[in-house]
Amino acid sequence: MTYNPDISPLGSQIKNPILSIIVPMYNEEQNVDRLLEHVIPVVEDIEPNYEIILVDDGSRDNTAEKVIEYCEVNAKLKFLAFSRNFGKEAALNAGLSYASGQAIIQIDADLQHPPEVIRTFYQEWKSGAEIVYGQRTSRDDDSALRGFLTRSFYKIFATVSDVKLMNGLGDFLLMDRKVVDALLSLPERERFTKGLYAWVGFKRVAVPFDVAPREHGQSAWSILRLYLFALGAITSFSTIPLKIWTYVGLFLAIPSFAYGGYIMIKTMILGIDVPGYASLMVAVCFFSGIQLLGLGIIGDYLGRVLKEVKQRPLYLISAKYGFDQAKTMRSETAKIKKLPC
User: How much of the chain, in percent, has pLDDT values that exceed 90?
Assistant: First the structure.
């Protein structure tokens, strides 16, 4: 650790911070030092009454140990550790649940979100904005394929959903307390937070920024994981994929009935006509594939319904550090009451 611990000596924990910073972390041991060395001076300069909540999403390296070292000398740092990897969406939700500030900022641990932009976020919030989001203007570390798939997803989402995502929206944003309370009041467990940011409304302001290159580690988001994430996002905010198969079924059924009637009449008039085996098998395989594809889409929706009905917690916390005990117990009690008998 290279920063000055006298900035916030142990025991000077602020009970009602104005600004909360939430940092989801997964295998970020190499980035912890750089993160806090950059973020703490910026936050101290704009609002000394703050807290930083670092959420370890089941890291396999020494991220937790590294963070706790800082928490022991800076009472404004708080730490949550999951019992396993529950995903970034769950980590963000945990941070929001435990944040006490009137303004809450989310930022990645790899410093691809420039901490200096926090100053602009805070100024816009003081001027009346309720959601101030970072608008990505460039991302040089993305491959051409990944960039194409990302753009395609946003176009498809805009087509099939009534919710319009903010252009260039990521997880780097500031939210007013009323926005966070609105998000936490939503009951669903399968969350696409970028869609929820847009769904709740409120006064928004965009702040353009360039995504910095990642110096340590690598992104945990593979192409397959991004695909599953995109599929979940679409099924969370649209039923059009289900409706499409209604129209596909009608499109295929009407000519099929017409052709069936034609064959029946032809057979009654001209006698039995043996159809070609090859063409029959092609038709059977084609329609079987269509049916399986439709069942797959229906199955995805049913799977999401099953997860909602089971009402399992979004995450399980194995350790926490720096939180007021009474407040934490009230938070946990509220969560326990929501669990099924």
Answer: 11
Instruction: State the pLDDT at residue 2.
Output: 44
The rounded Cα 335 to chain-centroid distance in angstroms is 21
For the segment 99-128, what is each residue's pLDDT rounded down to a tens digit?
Answer: 988 999 999 888 888 889 899 999 899 988
Q: Give the number of residues written for the chain.
A: 341
Q: Mean pLDDT for the chain? A: 76
Site of tokens 């800076």: 74
Q: Which of 318, 317, 321, 325 has the alpha carbon at shortest distance from 70?
A: 321
Answer whether 197's CB lies under 8 Å from 104's CB.
Answer: no
The widest CA-to-CA distance across the chain, in whole angstroms, is: 99
For residue 170, the model assigns a pLDDT of 78
Beta bridge partners of 21: 52, 105
Structure tokens at 218: 């690598």
Domain 8-238+313-336, CATH class in plain words: alpha beta
pLDDT at 276: 62
- And the tokens for 221? 């988001």
pLDDT digits (tens, 9 = 90+) for 34-59: 889 899 999 988 888 899 999 998 88
pLDDT at 53: 93
Give the chain as a 3 state SS string: CCCCHHHCCCCCCCCCCCEEEEEEECCCHHHHHHHHHHHHHHHHHHCCCEEEEEEECCCCCCHHHHHHHHHCCCCCEEEEEECCCCCHHHHHHHHHHHCCCCEEEECCCCCCCCCCHHHHHHHHHHCCCCEEEEEEEECCCCCHHHHHHHHHHHHHHHHHCCCCCCCCEEEEEEEEHHHHHHHHHCCCCCCCHHHHHHHCCCCEEEEEEECCCCCCCCCCCCHHHHHHHHHHHHHHHCCHHHHHHHHHHHHHHHHHHHHHHHHHHHHHHHCCCCCCHHHHHHHHHHHHHHHHHHHHHHHHHHHHHHHHHHCCCCCCEEEEECCCHHHHHHHHHHHHHCCCC
